[in-house]
Amino acid sequence: MGVVFALWLREVKRYLRSKPQIFASLGQPLMYLLVLGFGLGPVFAKAGQGDYLRFVAPGVVGMTILFSSIFSGVGLLWDRQFGFLKETLVAPVPRLWVMAGRTLGGATNALMQGTLVLIVCLIAGFRPDGVGGVLLGFLFMALIAVVFAALGTIIGSGLKDMQGFQLTMNFLVMPIFFLSGALYPLTELPTALAVLTRLDPLSYGVDGLRGAFIGQTHFGPAINLAVLGGLAVLFLLLGARAFSRIEA
Amino acid sequence: MIQVRDLTKTFGDVTAVGGITFDVRPGEVFAFLGPNGAGKTTTIQMLTTLLRPTSGSIALNGLDPAARPLDARRRFGIVFQDPSLDHELTAYENMDLHGVLYHVPRKARAERIQALLTLFELWDRRDARVKTFSGGMRRRLEIARAFLHTPKILFLDEPTLGLDPQSRNQLWTQVRHLNETEGTTVFLTTHYMEEAERVAHRLAIIDHGKIVAQGTPDELKKQTGTDSLEGAFLALTGTSIRDESANATDQMRQVVKLWRR
């Protein structure tokens, strides 16, 4: 366990030391929150859907965690390029521990980043329903972080260069975000889009957050928890397998 | 300490290492020399569990690294050809993380880190992040780190590449010192013949995946009738440049790796 903790701590230290990066990665969520939140607000209200800032804030929190956790897994690519990966691959510890430490560290960082964005949302005027909802919200935030940190590890184990990274961004991360219902309600969608959104793991995460924070949910908390919990286990197993197959 | 018999590694049609046999005795400094692409790094990767041999056998302190990788890894330290430090962590944190990965108990870890960082003249900079270090300092830190878990064998893959003469000189003095005081067997590769001549008790020369000569530096000079190790090396391996063939081999390895995925 000491090994898992040490590698977890390494990830967290790296995150806390990159303060410019923490602020830089607040930029994108802020754009979505403020520009869309206030820009689309009037239209959304006219359509009888209520306050858009209130609707989009959980989506923006989910988005932040998605990006942050997938990037932590893809960070394997950096470790490969700067060589630190080899140090962990020849160490006399099972690969599973190495993978667990890294992935949980990445998930922790994503959770911290998500919390930071949640605080910004509160400052911008977002008001969750109550303390209980916020606590349930943190459970969903943690689940989203673990699911996508593990997915990042699966992808990162196979990546060899920056081109692969771009490919992942454009054909995986962006679709996951846009299909998740972070920006729009999942009701009354065209069939094709409705099917795609149901296949997107983040849909259940964002819906779970929205249910917890503002009591508005499409799938219901039980389904959201079950899907995310199941995927977390599945992706962790697949991630461990992918990581154990890395050749130096 | 290291026994290698008929060790072979092929990547598809390409034979990187073709049936080599050698022994390294306990406490010895053994140099493994050869032109680019001769099979040095492939051999080290097989010795250190990073690659599985196609055929042949290896015994590290009596252990087969392919069969019991975790036990084998505990017994050796390695400094790779490419750097392998975490640049965002401090020198001390890099050492400490290594100690945890190799199960060095906390108290022994702290004492040994201090002793090694002092020996390699890095103790004053222990709390500085590695990204602020010069090339020579990074190399010293990596070698200090490899000694942390008191390995029986230390592998050094071209450790002095790109270092200035002062750093190289100092580095070998420290490695020799630890070889003598701790009895660590050292297996190294290098392109600098005068280094090999100065540091190594015995050496082997590999070319095209085969060992073409082995013995003490004096034996090799006598065998080839030359007066320097460099002369002996050139007499044994020829004077043609190998970059071309090395690249072709590397490309083949890449292709083979892709197909295996």
What does this structure look like?
The complex is a heterodimer of chains A (248) and B (261). By secondary structure, chain A is mostly helical. Chain A is built from 13 helices and no strands. The longest helix of chain A has 30 residues, at 95-124. The model of chain A has no long low-confidence stretch (mean pLDDT 91). Chain B has helices at 40-47, 69-75, 91-101, 106-119, 135-147, 165-182, 193-199, 217-224, 229-237, 243-260, and strands spanning 2-11, 14-24, 29-33, 55-60, 76-79, 153-157, 185-189, 202-207, 210-215. Chain B is built from ten helices and nine strands. Chain B has one domain (2-79, 151-260): Rossmann fold, CATH 3.40.50.300. With 261 residues, chain B is α/β, with parallel strands linked by helices. Chain B starts with a strand and ends with a helix. Chain B is globular, with a radius of gyration of 18 Å. The longest helix of chain B is centred in the middle third of the chain and has 18 residues, at 165-182. In chain B, β6 (153-157), α6 and β7 (185-189) form a beta-alpha-beta unit. Chains A and B meet through α1 and α7 of A and α2 and α3 of B.
Provide a quick synopsis of the model.
The complex is a heterodimer of chains A (248) and B (261). Helix content of chain A is 80%, strand content 0%.
Features:
heterodimer, A: 248 residues, mainly alpha, 13 helices, B: 261 residues, alpha/beta, Rossmann fold, six-stranded mixed sheet, three-stranded antiparallel sheet
Distance from first to last alpha carbon of chain A: 24 Å
According to DSSP, the number of beta strands of chain A is 0
Outline the low-pLDDT stretches of chain B: none
Number of helices of chain A: 13
How far is the first residue's CA from the last residue's CA of chain B? 35 Å
User: Strand order across the biggest sheet of chain B?
Assistant: 5-6-7-3-8-9
Overall domain count of chain A: 1
Oligomer state of the chains in this structure: heterodimer
Largest interface: A-B, 25 and 29 residues
Helix content of chain B: 40-55%
